[in-house]
Structure prediction request, 588 residues.
Amino acid sequence: MNSAGNVLLRNTRCQDPACIDDYIREGGYRSLRKALSAEPGQVLDEVKKSGLRGRGGAGFPTGMKWSFAAADPQMPKYLLCNADEGEPGTFKDRVIIERNPHLLIEGMVISAYAIGAASGHIYLRGEYAKARDGLLQAIKAAYEKDFLGDDILGKGARFHLRLHLGAGAYICGEETALIESLEGRRGHPRIKPPFPVNEGFSSKPTVVNNVETLANIPYIIEIGGDAYAKIGSPECPGLKLFSVSGHVNKPGVYELPMGVTLQEIIYTHCGGIRDGRKLKGVIPGGISTPVLLPDKIDCPMDFFHLQKAGSMLGSGAVIVFDETVDMVKVCLRTAEFFEHESCGKCVPCREGIGWMRAILDRINRRDGCEADIALLAEVSRNIKGKTFCPLGESAATVVQGFVEHFMPEFEEKVGSR
Amino acid sequence: MREISITGGEPLTRKKTALSNKILRELNDLKRKYDNERFSLLPALYLFQREYGWLSAEALEKVGEILGVPKTTVKSVSTFYAMFRHKPMGRHLIQLCTNVSCMIMGCERLTDILKTRYGLGPNATTHDGRFSFLVMECIGVCDIAPAMVVDTDLYGNLTEDSLIGILERYE
Ligand SMILES: Cc1cc2nc3c(=O)[nH]c(=O)nc-3n(C[C@H](O)[C@H](O)[C@H](O)COP(=O)(O)O)c2cc1C
Ligand code: SF4
Ligand code: FES
Prediction:
């Protein structure tokens, strides 16, 4: 596996990633000890100072999210780890769990201590069988060594952790749908507010964090929030895992400072475009984020700069297209994905995406006409701002992005060029 | 927690497959782990699917009965999730990813082979019951695209030749 970093992807030399002794030998669970000898409020302050933002896609400041839950007087509180990783192009959370499950567990115990949660769940994508086996083994070992349980490290802290498997529904990565699913229901998003930090799992204060977010916590405690805040982009600091796929010479997961440019990722770390071909476009953050043209690859990869460039950081899943790719087809496949994964709760998403897919299908088969391109734009406009959760919105935005950036290809397929 | 008692082996399917004691024990353990029985619905469905390979109407009914959830609710939940299967599957499950990264790396050539060589279309089963083919959204291994999972084995960087070679190993 390719890696430039050694914090989130550390401990990779050992034979058995779930082996707790190897993890401890490499300095693992030291941050937990350090955190437990401080007050929960001090741990929370370090995370606030670190400037860490959620790595699941939305980029919400982690310390702030925790402080809302910590301040809520209701008990018990819950910590949920979002390991549903369904965003196409993304495979970083799987790599953390498969290669370093104890890093996630340590991060969760520290986080739970800071917010006052005595139990938590990892909601793992159902398809991740290998990650499941390693994680189960790791949780068991952590209980045996008193890193989990009723009296953690003899310091009186309590945290119980359980693994729960998803069952193949992308929408369950959305945090309120995830909670619905954990509670044994269809994965339909809930209305917000109330937010999960006040009324989440079992209607109690709940923090939902992504795997990578939680995996950053031990390092923040180790070096301190101020030092962490100096890594990468000043507005949006820290380490980031990038899952790179498509037409690069060396696809894989890369640990790099936030704010690295796409240019650097593609040409320095991933060895450039295969067969010396030309770059045609790149999706920076998984297929829910709009495609960028090659003239934008000097954009720093962080939540703010990518937004200014017309896209989003999302999950940091970089999909690279060379000059041979048929972008109309990619757009159609993207619409098919969203149609398949729409949970069906609201009409603009459930019906609208189906319409977009049908129009795109026509255009792609060269059965479309010039008016179809305008119709597609109109359907997309009618979805935006009218959906219950961000899934429908992203589908419309992403389709619109393909059409705007690659208009000549669409025009060619409808015969107006 | 509500006690359940099933004496003997009640018929689960028309073939009179008995509910094994093992699965009942596991289901009981499962219920005990959750504060609210309803929360154990998805794990319970997984348990039945692992045991019987798919979820028949009778299986759904049984899960509902044991957990005290109406059978229509069980069905509504179960059919929401792509990994729960509601018809019998072939002996081997080919789960081929066709999402964007796999598509641009050539998965269409692979779906063509499944069609021409095995007469296998998306979400169908071969006549001899050897293979079922499920079209997958991204399976999270895009760095080795195009990729697939057969039963529980992962294969990446697939070519037409390697696909045929791999499938020949599954009888
Ligand atoms: C349709 C949809 C899918 C999502 N999928 C995921 C996912 O697979 N993993 C994840 O961590 N967050 C996902 N999210 C974001 C979560 O709702 C939530 O913001 C995140 O888990 C919060 O954790 P963080 O603050 O650590 O990022 C998704 C959001 C939406 C709208
Ligand atoms: S936008 Fe789509 S996924 Fe979200 S609630 Fe509406 S139908 Fe469901
Ligand atoms: S797109 Fe096929 S594994 Fe991700």
Observations:
- Chain A touches chain B through 52 residues (CB under 8 Å).
- The beta strands of chain A are 77-83, 117-124, 149-152, 157-165, 206-210, 239-246, 252-257, 279-283, 317-322.
- Chain A has three domains: 20-228, 239-322, 327-415.
- The two ends of chain A are 44 Å apart (CA to CA).
